[in-house]
Amino acid sequence: MDKINLDDVRRLLRECAGVDDAVDLDDDIAHREFTDLGYDSLAVLEVTARIQQEYGVKVPEDDAHLLTTPIKLVEFVNTRAVTA
Amino acid sequence: MTAGTATAAPVVTGVGIVAPNGLGTEAYWSATLAGRSGIGPLTRFDPGRYPSRLAGEVRDFDAAQQVPSRLAPQTDRWTHLGLAAAAMAIDDAGIEPAGLPEYEMAVVTASSSGGTEFGQREIERLWSRGPQFVGAYQSIAWFYAATTGQISIRHGMRGPCGVICSEQAGGLDAIGHARRLIRDNARLVVTGGTDASLCPYGLTAQLSTGRISERADPDRAYLPFDADACGYVPGEGGAILLLERAGAASGRQARGYGSVAGYAATFDPPPDSGGQPGLRRAAELALADAGVAPHDVDVVFADAAGVPELDRQEAAAITALFGARAVPVTAPKTMTGRLYGGGAALDAATALLAIHHSVIPPTTAVRQLADGCDLDLVLGEPRFQAVKCALVLARGWGGFNSALVLKAVDPTPDGGSDGQDQS
């Protein structure tokens, strides 16, 4: 499959969980914590479920809580996508 | 705080309305006085295969405008409507929750259907595509307390929170419970209720009562107390109220729409027991609780089921308490349909507006009272008169009866009441 990038994460966040009024997702969000961007664990869970549906990459719950920033999520998914 | 302010009836200082015939208090009130109905063809899905195809829909509501972007995807439409109405009520009251003690602010709403539309969508995904396609927010969106919880989180209100589910009686029960919380030292309570179950799953559940009108003409489908009554039209929406401790309200010279002077709830006996319906007893108990006599009541907001037998029972209860045609009775819900968890809350809001503006809004569509409904029903045109005390009645499917007494707020000695000219 194609690798995902930060714009994919932006789209998934918007579609799954909306955007906090005080946040601009088009900023450089790569290394910002999801919690800092206004997303709780349910929001991240929703996004990882959609990644599995769209890209076929499963993000186990034990790993999900370590993926605290958009760039960590992208790197995890792309590593799995290559080895899958 | 003195003992006097703790026991004085709490005061409604903010009103937020999301109704089929008006979004916002001003739009709703002008439509209601003008007799403009929000009942029309159901458009939220294709109802072609259903026996009932009319509804009171909140048509102009745009969740993207009314609900924060983060909250909209994780909540049902009923919660969207509740969040919008709560924000209106808080704004109307002039309250800044961020500046108040968070544990002294409580939230109690009524819900009848929960997040039915959201739940249906996710259940469809479950059976058609599998568990992994069910959204994570299903876990928090569809249960009854979701609206209360989201209001509490959004406004930082961490006092006692709860939800009451007693179908159409729920709005009054929530307000009654809010009064209890104020007695237990809450400073303010966001209360009332909304509902939105105009989806196939929701409508199918409602049809099981056998009480929904199957008539196609929006002007003849919901005719409570009429000789031609044939059931009711379902609707969505409701009202949220900001209830404040009397001392807190007068202390900041807030506008008081009215006070919650009395409340009572009863339960019907088993259907075949031969016992009397409990509505009359609820009304008597609420009047006694408020310390008012029937002749003090200026208007009764009826439950107005639109089902002949239930209409006769309600008319009998009102007549037994007040005498035949002895008190004005109205049911503006003929313009919205029955809103379930939001219905009685909207009736209470409407009664408060009647008190505030000294006018009784009309009942529409009804032409000829049924035999056994010997009521002074306010028909067609509003009736301009002082309204110092209103009795609101509600019945919920399954045997719930509730009654609420609302009274005009006495001007405070220092002139804190602002009179009747603001809207």
Low-confidence stretches of chain B: 1-6, 413-423
**Average pLDDT number of chain A:** 92
User: What pattern of helices and strands is seen along the backbone of chain B?
Assistant: HEEHEEHHEHHHEHEHEHEHEHEHEEEEE
Instruction: Report how far the terminal alpha carbons of chain A are from each other.
Output: 9 Å
- Distinct helical segment count of chain B: 13
**CATH class identity of chain A:** Mainly Alpha
**End-to-end separation of chain B:** 30 Å
User: CATH fold name of the largest domain in chain B, please?
Assistant: Peroxisomal Thiolase, Chain A, domain 1
Description:
Chain A: It comes from Asanoa iriomotensis. Chain A: This is Actinorhodin polyketide synthase acyl carrier protein. Chain A: InterPro entries: ACP-like_sf, PKS_PP-bd, PP-bd_ACP, Ppantetheine_attach_site. Chain A: Keywords: Phosphopantetheine, Phosphoprotein. The complex is a heterodimer of chains A (about 80) and B (about 425). With about 80 residues, chain A is mainly α. Chain A has one domain (about 5-85): Non-ribosomal Peptide Synthetase Peptidyl Carrier Protein, Chain A. Chain A has helices at about 5-15, 40-55, 60-65, 70-84. The longest helix of chain A is centred in the middle third of the chain and has 15 residues, at about 40-55. The termini of chain A are close together. The mean pLDDT of chain A is about 90. By secondary structure, chain B is of the alpha/beta class. Chain B folds into 2 domains: about 5-250, Peroxisomal Thiolase, Chain A, domain 1 (3-Layer(aba) Sandwich); about 260-405, Thiolase/Chalcone synthase (Peroxisomal Thiolase, Chain A, domain 1, 3-Layer(aba) Sandwich), CATH 3.40.47.10. Chain B has helices spanning about 5, 25-35, 65, 75-95, 115-130, 140, 145-155, 170-185, 200-205, 245-250, 280-290, 310-320, 345-355, and strands at about 10-20, 20-25, 40, 55, 105-110, 160-165, 190-195, 235-245, 260-265, 300, 330, 360, 375, 385, 390-395, 400-405. In chain B, strands 1, 2, 5, 6, 7, 8, 9, 10, 11, 13, 15 and 16 form a 12-stranded mixed sheet that branches. Chain B has a two-stranded antiparallel sheet with strand order 3-4. In chain B, strands 12-14 form a two-stranded antiparallel sheet. In chain B, helix 4 crosses helix 7 (about 145-155). The longest helix of chain B has 17 residues, at about 75-95. Residues about 1-5 and about 415-423 of chain B have low confidence and may be disordered. The interface of A and B includes residues 16, 18, 20, 46 and 53 of A.
